[in-house]
Amino acid sequence: MKDIHVDELLIEHVRGELEGAEAARVDAHLAACAECRAAREQFAGLMADLARTAPPPPPVHWGAYRVELRRRLERGSSRDLGGWLLRPAAALVATAMVAVLVYAGLPGGLRGPGAQDPLALDGSVLASRLDMIARLDVVQQLDLLEDFNVINELDELPEPSKS
Amino acid sequence: MESSDEQLCRAVAERKPEAFDLLVERYQERAYRIAWSIVRDREEAKDCSQEAFLRLHESAGSFAGQSKFSTWFYRIVVNCCLDQQRRRRGWRRLLGWRDRRDEAPDAPDPVEQAAAPFADPAEGLDTERRMSRVWALVEELSPQQRAAVTLSCREGLSTKDIAAVLSLSEATVRVHLHRALNTLRRRIGDEA
User: Fold this and answer.
1) Most buried of B21, B89, B130, B147 (most Cβ within 10 A)?
2) Helices (DSSP H) in B40-166: which residue ranges?
3) A61: in domain
């Protein structure tokens, strides 16, 4: 403590925090040093002004504050480790469920590769590419190509039975 | 007879909700004010002070009673604020934003670097204007120095308690306070 210059102890002197030999050292110095006496008075005035004139923080509705705190307490801190670990897992589960539901809702959805209607399966795979929906013109052209294939293969179709 | 903070904290550890409610009512304004003095944002200050109460609820059993409850709790508040600022700095770095203090953490105190404002001697400076200027300079302090000034002048904490709250040595707190208040004092002297 003896290495500390007296002027660094003036704030604690103002606050009455110094004791024993330290307080006596500062007192003795102040008795002999007009400059430090003036500094001490200025610190005392400044600290009193700071305590008196501190700008208040923006107002808060304390009732609402306590209700919000109670809610946070009931659902657990949003920043606890469990919450952070569970969030990605929940997101993955939700994404998977949405994907299954979208797939199931499409024509031919939930049919395996060995299903009876390969065209419907192809259509559902095609439709599952959601970006294709944004390019409807391309999809329509694919439909035209499909019609063209049917026309090409007309010869191979079994002739209707003549009754 | 009214329960002491320490008694209430022990009751919180025993999961008595009314004790927690009482502590919240006693400390909500101080917690919010200290948080605001560090983060300077209403919503963040609310969030940090509430987070401090949640941590208090979780860890009331770890309060050993070796310090005052207020010192222990203020430390939680300050830690919540510093955690929040670290997270924000992390995001800022990730997004490529730069913070003046991130670039030069050891740079001289901005209060000491601030240019003396032009003051019209004909007008003079009344107390209100002078203090407004002083608080504007306080705004430019680092969060820890601002917290030290606030805890000292506004909350009336001793150097020892401030050191405990800010996890600093008493010598460091003494230097922080001395540098900050000395600079403010010189500014006032220059402008008077």
Assistant:
1) B147
2) 42-59, 69-94, 100-103, 110-113, 127-139, 143-149, 159-166
3) no
State the fold for domain B108-191. Arc Repressor Mutant, subunit A (1.10.10)
* CA–CA separation, B56 and A74 (whole Å): 14
| ipTM greater than 0.85 | no
Contacts of B29 in chain A (CB under 8 A): 62
CB contact under 8 A, B158 and A46: no
| Entry pTM | 0.62
A27, A56 Cβ separation under 8 angstroms = no
- Domain containing A88 equals 78-155
- A60 closest CB neighbour out of B46, B51, B127: B46
Scanning A4-80, the segments in alpha helix (DSSP H) are 10-14, 20-32, 34-53, 62-75
Q: Is residue A1 part of a domain?
A: no
> Which residues in B lie closer than 8 A to residue A66 (C-beta atoms)?
21, 24-25, 28
Q: Which residue has the tokens 């005052």?
A: B68
Chain B touched by A61 (CB under 8 Å):
no
CATH architecture of B5-94: Orthogonal Bundle (1.10)
Confidence of residue A136 (pLDDT cuts 50, 70, 90): low
The H-or-E segment that residue A2 falls in is none
Residues 6+ apart with CB under 8 A from B49: B28, B31, B32, B34, B35, B77, B80
Residue A96, CB-side half-sphere exposure with 13 Å CA sphere:
6
Residue A123 C-alpha from the chain's centroid: 38
The answer to whether A153 faces chain B, any CB pair under 8 Å, is: no
Chain A residues with CB under 8 Å of B32 CB are 57, 60, 65
**What residue ranges do the domains of chain B occupy?**
5-94, 108-191
Instruction: Please indicate, yes or no, whether residues A46 and A83 belong to a single structural domain of this protein.
Output: no
Over residues A2-53, the pLDDT tens digits come to 456 788 899 999 999 999 999 999 999 999 999 999 999 999 998 998 888 8
